[in-house]
Amino acid sequence: MEQDDICCGAHEICEKGLMKPPKTTEIEYFDDEELDIYKGKKSDEYSENEIEEFREILYTMYTYEINDWLRSLHQREIELPEELKDEVILLMEGKG
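RE: above sequence
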């Protein structure tokens, strides 16, 4: 499987080797269906309020769920806001 097949739109995360191969091709939701309205939006186009919407969801999940959440976003064609990528990396590395 190629890197693009599992990439979450947060390439820095993939490049750090933090993304794990998918367990399934089914889309898993994390009580975040409201994010579907951002399908197709670029990672650098989010407003502060929209970024906070993602951040609230991010900080309600366990660290081990973040990888699956990023994959879910990717499958749904939702890019992670640019401003959250460093936070996600820190959380996935256990430093957040």
